[in-house]
Amino acid sequence: MSRILRAVNALILLLVLAGLIGVYWFVWRPTTQTSGEIPAPTAKPVRIVRDSLGIPHIFAENIDDVLFAQGFATAQDRLWQMDTLRRLAAGELSEIIGKSGLELDRKARRLRMRQVSQLWLKNLPAKDRALLAAYARGVNHYIETNRGKWSPEFTVLGYQPRPWLISDTLLCALQMHRTLSGNWEQEALKARMLAHGDRDKVNFLFPERVGDEPMPGSNAWAISGAHTTTGKPVLANDPHLEWSMPSTWYEIQLQAPGLNVTGASLPGVPAVVIGHNERIAWGITALQFDNQDLYIENIDLRTGAFSYKGQTGQAHREVELIAVKGDKPAEVVIYTTLHGPIFHSEGDVHMALRWAAAANNPFEFPMIDLNRARNWTEFRSALSRLTGPNINVLYADVDGNIGWQVAGRLPLRKGFRGDVPLDGAGGAQEWDGFVPFDELPSYYNPKSGILVSANQNGFPPDTPYQVSGFFASTHRARQIEARLLSRPKWKPEEMLRIQSDVYASSLKFLATQAVQAVDKRGDQNPMAREGAQLLRDWDGQMNREKAAPVLASLLYQHLRRSMADRAAPKEGADYKPYIAHSVVEKLLRQRPAGWFNDYDLWLATSLADAVEEGKRMQGRNTAKWRYGALNLLTLKHPIASLVPGMDSFFNIGPLPLNGFGTTINATSERIGPSLRFVADTSNWDASQMNLTVGESAHIFSGHYKDQWEHYYTGRSFPLEFGNVKATGTLTLRP
Questions:
Q1: Which candidate, 178, 179, 171, places its Cα nearest to that of 120?
Q2: Which Gene3D superfamilies does the entry link to (predicted)?
Q3: What is the mean pLDDT of residues 596-611?
Q4: What's phi and psi for 170, nearest 5 deg?
Q5: Per-residue pLDDT averaged across 588-593, rounded?
């Protein structure tokens, strides 16, 4: 017995030792070093001070060193995310994850993202190249000095990160450009609907302010001191992007001579994208001006021959091999015409995609200039160098000024809108360059003291050029303005309440219309009567614990689909432009002839159908419905969540969400506020910023998801600036 006991004890000891070794190898070794000294190829010593949220505050004596340290610190926390970003943009995910990444890779290859990044690099001014090179050196120093100590994802997937290149930073920037670009799917959809539908009705469905429902939205506003208790401006920003684990953004402070800036950066890219320095603050929303057009090409894909202005041209042919883990490489053949790569086909119709990002013009990186700007003039000068993505940038400064500047590369279209695929052979529908910066919308110190951007069309009616885009409905912008005007003065921290607002004026209008229709008709349909009773006293709040929002959202979907089917039969399921909220509302307010013989019948029938669908989804008792079950979020780490039995540790959710697409707190299962930022120009240390999950991507870090609870409950954290409470200091010694 004693031998057996000794053997069992020895086995237990071995298992414990193996477990401890595993914990050391996978948990302790990859964690971020936050204190001590390490040698580094910097000109002067650099301090990386971490606060209680793990956010790095970098103090250096020159710009090169501070950007080197930014690359190093970001790689400490987010190297695998950075690697997957550059792979996503370049079409190289399949190399590490296998066949599941092939479709994403094919799309990136057809967009020629790698080639576009090389074009950007070729046209990059020397001074901008030097800034990006400093950042790349910092990333590479981390890779080289921590070989074998990288985060567990590299070990699990069995590969090593290659050195970081300037073109990799450009790929990460280009991926964000891609995220905020284009509505080519809507152009193709409109063309299909026009082909077999009622032209007037289809055009009604796609007004000039066309939007794409899956596209990210954003909110930003600036109010002057006349509206604040401090007498100084306040700026707020909550850009909406796809949910992700880790967060899209990485918080950081950069301080060097002539530079002291803090806020949100994009992993893989130097500088701060959203934030403030000692003098100004800025926030960003997607402009949603259309910078992509489909061109129908008369092309023979067997030979690459195509027609243009009566002449025969030869498309450039590229054959690319996509490495696929565990399988043979996949081949992608790309033909590129004068307009761009053949990107979309419907039957024998082949279309090239023209994209402003791929234009052979100088590409510049003005973010450090923006981070250094000290007033409105310098701010605009920096943005004049921005070639993309197309954005609205809201502004506030310590001198009491507020502003709004549109920036980016906006195509000039003369005589056409670009809202449907264009004739690629005739040559009459070509871009005429880009809108000069001085002609882009710019607003400074309006009399109202309020500026609001929520992806609505911000171009004035007398704009001298064709405005085409996938702009949002005005519901969010109107609600923000209504909240800001609801009281004379606001405390800066109260902007969080507005960012958390979930009143859906669009759905409240539909609910009221449906209830009135049922009452007017004296409807005998029990489903319609039950629906009217549920919506009768609803306050329009998209609260996750309530039943009425379930029905209101389903009612909208039924109205939208049936409306689109009237314009073009069998297309209703695909008609999902964000502007549809405004289109449905306009149709019900105007009730034009030719659509529905009896609008009240349409409303009552749609309401009954929505009730029936809700019962199928959540049960026969409508009192037990919960909107949160319809708006349910699960945040999954793409690799760690695959470990059996560890979902609750690595993931977040499923959790019910408040909000809707047209509420200020715009949420869905796929998209939500990627951060919340409030800048107090009266006291920078009273500013606030909150990421979705946490600063670190290391699954065993205490900062992996330590910001989530505040985010979910509508709270935030101080954005430490002048008064940094250090929890550790790492010094980079030359």
A1: 171
A2: 1.10.1400.10, 2.30.120.10, Glutamine Phosphoribosylpyrophosphate, subunit 1, domain 1, Penicillin Amidohydrolase, domain 1
A3: 97
A4: -65, -35
A5: 96
Tokens of 298: 């008369």
The domains spanning 40-182+293-358 and 505-630 adopt the same CATH topology: no
Contact of 381 with 397, CB cutoff 8 Å: no
Which 8-state DSSP code applies to residue 400?
S
Residues 462-499: tens digit of each pLDDT: 888 988 878 888 899 999 999 999 999 999 999 999 99
- Contact call for residues 178 and 273 (beta carbons, < 8 A): no
The alpha-carbon radius of gyration of the chain (Å, integer) is 27
**pLDDT value for 1:** 53
Active-site residue, from 218, 453, 506, 701: 218
Compute CA 59 distance to the chain's CA centroid, rounded to the nearest angstrom.
30
Q: What are the binding residues for Ca(2+)?
A: 187, 290, 293
Of residues 32, 25, 22, the one with CA closest to residue 698: 32
Residue 160 φ then ψ, to 5°: -120, 145
Across the range 616-626, mean pLDDT stands at 96
CATH no., domain 505-630: 1.10.1400.10
In the three-class reduction of DSSP (H, G, I as helix; E, B as strand; rest coil), residue 576 is classed as coil
DSSP assignment of 485-542: TTSS-B-GGGHHHHHT--B-HHHHHHHHHHHHHHHHHT---HHHHHHHHHHTT--SB-
Structure confidence by residue, pLDDT tens digits, 517-544 = 999 998 889 999 999 999 999 999 999 9
Identify whether the C-beta of residue 509 lies closer than 8 Å to the C-beta of residue 246.
Answer: no
Total number of residues shown for the chain = 734
pLDDT score of 2: 64
Residue positions forming the annotated binding site? 187, 290, 293
Residue 174 near residue 117 (C-beta atoms within 8 A): yes
**pLDDT at residue 10 is higher than 90:** no
Is 218 catalytic? The answer is yes
Task: For CA atoms 252, 253, 256, 259, give the dihedral sign.
Answer: positive
Give the residue extent of every domain in the chain.
Answer: 40-182+293-358, 505-630
> 291, 356 in Cβ contact below 8 A?
yes
Residue 14: pLDDT over 70? no
Task: Specify the DSSP element, H or E, that contains 37.
Answer: strand 36-39
What is d(CA 155, CA 178) in angstroms, rounded to the nearest whole number? 30
pLDDT averaged over the chain?
Answer: 92
pLDDT category at 31 given cuts 50, 70, 90 is: low
Digit-coded pLDDT (tens) for 381-434: 999 999 989 999 999 999 999 999 999 999 999 999 999 999 999 999 999 999
CA distances from 249 to 78, 406, 452, 677 (A): 10, 22, 23, 12
Strand partners, 688: 678, 718
Return all residues near 214 (Cβ < 8 A) that are at least 6 apart: 576, 670, 671
* Secondary structure of residue 260 in the 3-state scheme: strand
The pTM for the full model equals: 0.93
What CATH homologous superfamily does 40-182+293-358 map to? Penicillin Amidohydrolase, domain 1 (1.10.439.10)
Among candidates 89, 87, 86, 60, which has minimal Cα distance to 72?
A: 60
Query: Are 608 and 525 contacting, i.e. CB atoms less than 8 angstroms apart?
Result: yes
Which of the 8 DSSP states describes residue 667? Answer: -
**299-339 pLDDT, tens digit each:** 999 999 999 999 999 999 999 999 999 999 999 999 999 99
Decide the pairing of beta strands 671-673 and 234-242: antiparallel
